[in-house]
Amino acid sequence: MSFLELDRVAKQFGPQTVVDDFSLTVGKGEFVSFLGPSGCGKTTTLQMIAGFLDPSRGAIRLEGRDLTAMQPAKRGLGVVFQSYALFPHMTAAENVAFGLEMRRVPRAECRERVRAALEMVGLAGYEERYPRRMSGGQQQRVALARALVIRPSVLLLDEPLSNLDAKLREDMQIELRQIQRNLGTTTILVTHDQNEAMSLSDRIVVMNQGCIEQIGTPQETYERPASAFVSQFLGKTNDLAATIDLSATPRRLAAGSWSVPAPAGIAGPVTVSIRPERIGFGDAGIAAKIVTRIFQGNHWLFQCESECGPVIVIRQNDGQPQPAEGEAVRLAWRPEDMSLRGAGGVA
Amino acid sequence: MSAAVDTAPANIAATADTRDGRAPWALTAPALMLFVGVLVIPLAMTVMLSFHDWGQYKGIEPVFILKNWREIATDPYYAEMFWRTFRIALLTTLITAMFGAPEAYILNRMSGRWKSFFLLVILGPLLISVVARTLGWALLFGGNNGLVNKLLMSLGLIGSPLPFMFTETGMVIALAHVMMPFMVLSVWTALQRLDPQIENAALSLGAGSFTIIRRIVLPQIMPGVLSGAIIVFSLSASAFATPAIIGGRRLKVAATLAYDEFLNTLDWPLGAAVAVLLLVALVLIVVGSNALIERRYAEVFR
Ligand SMILES: Nc1ncnc2c1ncn2[C@@H]1O[C@H](COP(=O)(O)OP(=O)(O)O)[C@@H](O)[C@H]1O
Ligand SMILES: [Mg+2]
């Protein structure tokens, strides 16, 4: 199972610990994303895998072999940089061929593999172009072809799509996923864009200030966030203060005038975290007034002022009439749609 | 300004037209006049001077003859002197490129504090007069009294002082030292434009450090090396202070020869001819090589 393994890896720059206690196993062919805000140590971790930085502590293993003892040039990993780092004095074909030349691949085979790689990224016919004469998207594709043509055991992508405009980024996401599926290359993607991480990855590693907050599938991290940070970072969420009413039997969990039987093993003040699209308007629940109503095409976004503070609600635009601004409503949700965090942490 | 605002649209268009025509000239006039006054006129006078006659007793005669130019063209002394001038400039250029480019590369890889310190060390000499820097070499190697020569002779390593003064080698070494900052600066500027991840990219593709320098870094800083070379070459070929101190009146280059003709022989027309020829040759070489470089790198770096 474990193809690439990071074992309690840490990196220190002087007194500053930039990555701490980072443990992760990646399966062969898996697509894993490092997701976190800017400066949380994603690039640093990726560069330690690539070998451009040495970890201060911990071990990195690839198929059981210790990677840290190996020169970066010998690791055989493909890297795509945020700036692409193409060789400006070489044509697209020469850029892609560089890694093969270093491996002394025979000329004829080299030419064929370069052609195939450029075709795979949709750049057939651009062989003789210099990078300066290509658009950002095309440069990005050359960088991808250059990293993939050497058939790397692991593909490392450092914010590869962040310099592209929104439309192109979506197209590239789909293409990237397809290429990765077809080749079956184990891939690690660094990104600060939660949509990108969720639409591309098998698993997401959510990072904050150099530490792992949660590792899980996109669905797990979205629906069962392990911490307040994760739930805030992965899309919009409502955090409501709630209490456990110990006097009632069975005990009840209450947020304002909304209440359900309390789950076992939790006591004291808790935080109820509930996604805006899981909240419905009903006859019972917490009392609220709609402050603004924003139409966003396929859905409506409501900002409400409730007895428990501000709440965001998202409703599908399914043709049903929606409450108007200023209208008093009651908000409710199914108990299984919320996640609870006690003062002591995860529940 | 307020007048323009008050006038009718047609008038505004008219003033705009005349302004378009004259304003650039009016605005550049002071600089243009300075340029014409201190550069173009003296240059034209020098060119004219080179066609005048001169005699030991009659002095300068404002006539139009080709005597000076014929002398330069026929007397092998001048050919040898010009050949020496450009040989020294070329060698100086090669040496500064060979040492300056790696120097800039190493400097660029240093970490913050050391980088600024060594940049200061490299550029610091620019603050010191060329004369002082060249005299330093003369003090170290000049004849029997040179510090290094004395030391080596007292150690018995050499029997006679190392030939440095009045030699081309000495001149090239001293000039290379004087010109080094220009080359380092020029390469340094080119290095700043390198993608900071580009060496990592090559590394991840399996390139060793020598290959990275040869195939990735060097081709990208080559325009910087070449423009540095043009600067160093033209400055060395027209250098005066260093050749004057090291070469004295025994080993002359174009600049020192022109100086001698002007101030010692007082044959101004001949000195003018030498100076004009040096200028024309330099302009041709610089413009020519610049055009070659532009054409070679236009595709990649535009
Ligand atoms: N070479 C370095 N020296 C000192 N600090 C660094 C260095 N590289 C990165 N850092 C610091 O490490 C932290 C994480 O950086 P990075 O891994 O690039 O973040 P991310 O890629 O998640 O945005 C940042 O606070 C950054 O300032
Ligand atoms: Mg980063």
UniProtKB/TrEMBL annotation, chain A:
Any one Gene Ontology BP term: quaternary ammonium group transport
Entry-linked Pfam families: ABC_tran, TOBE_2
Name of the protein in question: ABC transporter ATP-binding protein
Entry keyword Zinc: no
Organism: Bradyrhizobium valentinum
Record's GO cellular component terms: ATP-binding cassette (ABC) transporter complex
InterPro entries tied to this protein: AAA+_ATPase (IPR003593), ABC_SmlMolc_Importer (IPR050093), ABC_transporter-like_ATP-bd (IPR003439), ABC_transporter-like_CS (IPR017871), Mo/tungstate-bd_C_term_dom (IPR008995), P-loop_NTPase (IPR027417), Transp-assoc_OB_typ2 (IPR013611)
Similarity comment text for this entry: Belongs to the ABC transporter superfamily.
GO molecular function, one term: transmembrane transporter activity
Keywords: ATP-binding, Nucleotide-binding, Transport
Residue ranges constituting the ABC transporter domain according to the UniProt record: 4-234
